[in-house]
């Protein structure tokens, strides 16, 4: 298991991992960022004894090849840093080699099935890649069509506006000339007889 944990300034965090009897326990940490880039690391055996004492370092690791079983405590200490929190990568691993050997024998027996399985997976991967390519091309066509639609819409709106202005100008001009045609001139300057 791989964790990225944040340890606040002046704090200590402990993590517990169950290990079966006869299994191999491995723990390591590395400070990724924060403060001086160092913190303390300790491992406590299930019987309560500290098997890896605190050391103020950037990274450390611990391995127990033949565990008696129980809950191990892995503690990360940031108590010396009073102002800066730390981002720490914590890796815990429990391996049962007896189960691993049994698994390896099963894999050897099923070697033929694994080859068939690998072929099937490659076939599925090939089909998925083709589908992704088709989706990419479909999205590209959709984008191109949408842009064409937007351009056509702008073109129609622009020319519709020009035609509305032309019709309004023509109507105004016609009303002006029709009024001018029927305009009565007042001749008050005529002489009376």
UniProtKB/TrEMBL annotation:
**Record localization:** Endomembrane system; Membrane
Record has Signal as a keyword:
yes
Q: Which residues cross the membrane?
A: 156-178
Residue ranges of the GOLD domain? 12-94
Print the keywords alphabetically: Developmental protein, Membrane, Signal, Transmembrane, Transmembrane helix
- What topology does it adopt in the membrane? Single-pass membrane protein; Single-pass type I membrane protein
- What's an example GO cellular component term for this entry? endomembrane system
Query: What PROSITE patterns does the database record attribute to this sequence?
Result: GOLD
Lineage: superkingdom: Eukaryota
Q: Which InterPro entries match?
A: Emp24-like, GOLD_dom, GOLD_dom_sf
Q: Which Pfam families match?
A: EMP24_GP25L
User: What family does the database annotate?
Assistant: Belongs to the EMP24/GP25L family.
Q: Which PANTHER family match?
A: TRANSMEMBRANE EMP24 DOMAIN-CONTAINING PROTEIN
Its name, as the record gives it, is Transmembrane emp24 domain-containing protein
User: What organism, scientifically named, is this protein from?
Assistant: Papilio xuthus (Asian swallowtail butterfly)
